[in-house]
Amino acid sequence: MQALFVRSLSSDLSGVELGEALLAERQPGKVTVEVRAASLNFPDLLMTRGEYQMKPELPFILGLELAGEVVEADADSSFKPGDRVFGGQKTGAFAEFAAVDAAALRLIPAGMDFAQAAAFGAAYGTAYTALVELGGLKPGQWVLVHGASGGVGLAACDLTKALGARIIAATGSPGKLEALQAACQPDAVVLAQGKFRQQVAEITGGALCDLVYDPVGGDVFDESTRCVAFGGKLLVVGFAGGRIADISTNIPLIKGFSVVGVRAGEYARRFPERGKAIRDAMLDLAIEGRLHPHIDRVLPLSRWREGFEAMARRAVIGKVVFEPGR
User: Fold this and answer.
1) Of 141, 149, 152, 155, whose CA–CA distance to 169 is shortest?
2) Taking burial as the number of CB atoms within 10 A of a residue's CB, which of 134, 141, 201, 296 is the most buried?
């Protein structure tokens, strides 16, 4: 089968190669899936550089999440050949076939195609864990979502809207403002450059934001500390901006807000019952048709470099999805 390997770590994707792989014999507890779609996530890019917290042994097949059809499963599992499933694990999704833990798979809701299903799990899992599980999101609250044009950001906007809260979608790129407005139809859009607190204050009538969702870090985090309402939460989701910010503890003390670190995957591993509850709640919303993953582009796996480079340039609105069979 074809698969996308990381052969060596590099800053320019020179260690990444499309090649042939053998699918190992299926082990008990695993499900063999014919991959119909696999979505690109920021950790995939980081893993090509050795900059992600998990560092698989080289060489390894890239790809965190996938959607496809079951080929083979244990007789006593809840899956049978032909079932449409989505899910994944830390590696292995960017291939024509993958062996996935049965516990990591779910049936694709009716009305959701393979590309949307592949783009669903990681992004919405992060958004739900941050905003609902840790943030306590309530209808009517103001939520400032940074990096809103990316997959994780758009998922946060979509979830916020589905749960009846108000969204300020923020992007660092002036050229994305119009496209962001069209993609998620937020209550407001702001350019997250310089001192954007005044814009946030004007939009919220001076109330500021109950929750700030920040996958960017750096200067965006610094200014966001001025955008959180008293009693609110600043949710640290990542550092896509490059710089890991510092904060003096007197700032959250005086302003009365909490800084909350979000590692959705680790949270689910440490608290498996809560992880299952989160996945079930997300799936219920999807089945009800209230969540709508946004796809920027669908590419054959042979054009993997185009997708990775677009993500690195932040030239996408939503998720990049690969189709390994093409």
Assistant:
1) 149
2) 296
Residue type, 152: V
- Residue type at 20 in one-letter notation: E
Coil, strand or helix at 255: helix
Whether the bond into 324 is cis, omega within 30 of 0: no
Query: Is beta strand 258-261 parallel, antiparallel or unpaired with respect to 228-236?
Result: parallel
Please identify which residue in the block is written with the tokens 């291939």: 95
Query: Average pLDDT in the 18-26 region?
Result: 88
Q: What is the pLDDT of residue 198?
A: 96
Q: What is the pLDDT of residues 158-185, one digit of tens each?
A: 999 999 999 999 999 898 999 899 988 9
* Contact criterion met (CB below 8 Å) for 174 and 242: no
Q: Is 160 helix (H, G, I), strand (E, B) or coil?
A: helix
pLDDT digits (tens, 9 = 90+) for 67-89: 999 999 999 889 999 999 999 88
Contact 169, 186 (CB under 8 A): yes
Strand duo 65-72 + 84-88: pairing: antiparallel
**Does the pLDDT value for residue 325 go beyond 80?**
no
> Is it true that the peptide bond before 59 is cis, omega within 30 degrees of 0?
yes
| Per-residue tokens: 297 | 């582009």
Please tell me the distance from the alpha carbon of residue 324 to that of residue 235, in angstroms, as a whole number: 34
Q: Is 105 helix (H, G, I), strand (E, B) or coil?
A: strand
Distant-in-sequence, close-in-space partners of 299: CB < 8 Å, separation ≥ 6: 306, 307, 320, 321, 322, 323
